[in-house]
Amino acid sequence: MGYTRHDLAEMKLNDIKGIGPSLLEKAKAAGLESVDDLLNYYPRRYLDRTRQVSIGELFPGEQATIYATVEAISTRRMKNRKTMVEGIVSDETSRVKITFFNQPWRAKQLKVGTQAAFFGKMDEYRGQPQIVNPVVDIIKEDEESDKTGSIIPIYPQSTKADLSTWNVRTIIKEVIKYAQDLDEILEPAVLEELKLIKRSQSYKNIHQPESEEDARQAARRLRFDEFLMLQMVLIGRYLKHEKYFKSQKLSEDFLERTYLKSLPFELTNSQLLAIEEIDSDLDALNPAHRLLQGDVGSGKTVVAFAATLRAVGSGAQSVIMAPTEVLVKQHYKNARLSFEGLTIKDETNLLGSRPVNVEMLSNSTSSQDRDRIEKMVENGTCDVLITTHALLYNEWEFSNLALVIIDEQHRFGVEQRSQLLSRGGLTPHMIVMSATPIPRTAAMLYFGDLKNTVMTDMPKGRKPVETKIARTNKEVDSAYARIREEVKAGRQAYVVCALVSDSEKVQATSAVAHVDELRNNQLSGLKLGLVHGQMSSEDKEIIMAEFGSGKIDVLVSTTVIEVGVDVPNASVMVVEDADRFGLSQLHQLRGRVGRGSDNAYCYLLTSKETISAQNRLEAMETTNDGFELAEIDLELRGAGHILGGIQSGQGDLKLGRLPRDSKYVQFAYDVAMQKLTNDPSMESKENSVLAIEMSAFVDSNEIEFLFKS
Ligand code: ADP
Ligand code: MG
Q1: pTM attached to this predicted model
Q2: 330 lines ligand 1 (CB under 6 A)
Q3: Are 493 and 449 contained in the same domain?
Q4: Which ligand 1 atom is the nearest neighbour of the CA of 568?
Q5: Which atom of ligand 1 is nearest to the CA of 595?
Q6: Average pLDDT for 198-222
Q7: Residue 279: inside a domain, yes or no?
Q8: Residue closest to 384 by CA, chosen among 304, 444, 453
């Protein structure tokens, strides 16, 4: 028997010989206290000394990395009061001047004797060769005899702790031997099939590689383990739900059918399919647990209402949860209209039936209403409750809650889920709706415990929103001219203000100024309304209602125009400084128009854009397909951004990244599924190490939930 990672986490650096007190102090400040911490503190990248260029070989104009020692360093203050740090560095072949502008800390960083890699372009200034503002990686602070191989790991620079890359290397030298005895968690056949190296070897190779290939192999293995841990948790949850939780079987579909028949349009194939899948989920004792993805405007609300009415018709209560008041109000209004005339059995009533009761709860609900609704929730007469997340903080006891639908939400933790239990301990069916299309592998990574339905069809007659980038004054003018034209034709428009700041206050001020500007110039004579995040929800609601009823022609807003807002008569959108917005945000915004049958337009205003902003804007011009855009976004920015920085709860992925590692997500999924299907409570010998490590590294409540019955 060797070590588990749990053993290594118990091994504190204090107890390891050869690590001095000042080094210990620094490591602690960086949050590194155990051998396991250190081994999992990976290099950010590597320098390959075999690719270095000698100073003597450098040509003016050439970009290269040199490895050199600082011979002299000094700071000068220039006439404009800015600082200039100048130094001389040398290697065996020659010496060269380095100059840093406005980086006063360099003088302290690059003490005489420091060895570092300098990457930059060799220039000539007044006949003297120099490198201006090179990228610096310090290798050693002074000339201790610390032999590093030809591949030098560079560790992340911690801002709060003064733990240098050579400090980490020194500690690693003392602890790396423990990795050698780390037990394996994957069977030999799996290692072979996935071409992964042993994990004991991978720790050695990620910290002390002999070649770049070594380091790559090591990272592959450790990355796989990260994904495996995540999938073990997700699939654990999934199987647990399948097996141990009981829900109510919702079989009565009369109300649902009546509602669907009453719709003034034909359902899309995607809607039909989603309804069918959800129906069969609900018509079972296992709690449904499904992610319903559909692009903005794909008609998810109809699907949600159908499910709700199946629950109501079967005598149970439903909750629809939305992230903002505006959305809650919109759903409420919509539900009141849609459910009008629908009745359910009621023996206490003379007629033997009563109308379906829909109630709404938000932060602005009066305490009187709140009390009234609470009573109805508890005695079962509130059939459908539409609410913001406020509900999660009430400890209301539903009489017979059987379905929870979460709209426009990426993720709910288990804790939050389990708060909404019904009396009698039944788990409600759960449907999570997302309007942000999530690429398949990203969905597996974060939603692996949910079944997935993707709606790809859009309602008939919907035309793609014609999208144009407007860069020149002339193009901007024609964007506003389009607004005037559309308004003249009886339609409406949005103007989304520039993201000037993260502060809501600053945003609001600038939006107020912008409305004035538009009112006096480009949009004079039109009826403008303004919403921003600093307004009270009543004021917001008034403006939204006026826009909804057509009293306002143009709604100027900060990004608070909520996802999901539905005003089909709006046909143009202008986004100011569109280059400041992310791709999925732009797509969400654009989804506000093109909801009616008229041609719709979106203008993306930009004056100065980076390459990546240009890529985003051009992607918007090329396609209206949310999934395609999501893939592009994933390519451009990685998964974290798309999912809005959602954390897995099991520690962040350190090495894993999408879409690069999509394949690993699938592998990890397969391996985890196999392990947990064969050994649901992780009791077998072959899973013993993994079971111990999960208990050590996964939140204890989660473990309790997953593996104890
Ligand atoms: P989202 O999926 O973004 O939540 P909504 O449910 O708000 O979309 O639907 C957008 C609009 O499309 C609504 O006005 C809705 O009434 C309408 N709609 C939904 N399904 C259809 C359909 N099959 N045919 C035509 N219009 C539809
Ligand atoms: Mg919606």
Answers
A1: 0.73
A2: no
A3: no
A4: 14
A5: 11
A6: 95
A7: yes
A8: 304
